[in-house]
Amino acid sequence: MSKAQPKPEVEKPEVEVEDDQLNRAIEELRGVLSEEEKRPGAAAARPSGVGNSVILDIPVEVQIVLGSTEMPVSDLMSLQKGSTVALDRRIGEPVDVVVNGRRIARGEITVLESDPSRFGIRLTEIVAATKSA
After folding, report:
1. What range does the domain containing 45 cover?
2. Could you tell me the mean pLDDT of each successive run of 10 residues in the chain, 133 residues long?
3. How far is residue 76's CA from residue 70's CA, in Å, rounded to a whole number?
4. Which of 52, 75, 81, 96 is placed for a possible disulfide with 65 were both Cys, Cβ 3.0 to 4.6 Å?
């Protein structure tokens, strides 16, 4: 009688592991926040944001992706002040909002009412989180 051999563990690439961890953390956070919201009187019992302060203080990298392009290294090396790089998007097309390397939303560029010399992004679509298998 032979014993069943344990399955050898297949190592996942580091990016996949980070995505899995991030997905699990997001789902746990959603669960905790929805449970907190359902508790009667929970919001009135504590000052706003006290229960979430640990999570809300975590810094994240937010990028607005206007577009991208591919070019040979020789073209990249010849770039100088005043050079123009053509991107793969056109004026008026939505831009991507990326948090920690993951696209979470799309939006359109807008001029800030409070400071017309600056611009921002008006969100037009929130990308649904995908669950990994």
Report:
1. 12-58
2. 54 62 71 65 51 76 91 95 92 89 91 90 83 48
3. 9
4. 96
Whether the CA torsion 31, 32, 34, 39 is positive or negative: it is positive
Here the CATH number for the domain that contains residue 90 is: 2.30.330.10
**Tokens 């790089």, residue located:** 85
Q: Indicate whether 48 and 110 sit together in one domain.
A: no
Cα distance between residue 33 and residue 30, in whole Å: 5
Q: Is 117 helix (H, G, I), strand (E, B) or coil?
A: coil
* 3-state SS, residue 10: coil
Is residue 3, in this structure, part of any structural domain at all?
A: no
Of the candidates 91, 33, 43, the residue with the CA atom closest to the CA atom of residue 67: 91
Give the residue from 57, 66, 67 showing the smallest Cα distance to 120: 66
Answer yes or no: are the C-beta atoms of 121 and 64 closer than 8 Å: yes
> For the residues of 38-81, what is the DSSP string, one character each?
HSTTHHHHS-TTTTTHHHHT----EEEE-------HHHHHT--T
| pTM across the whole model | 0.50
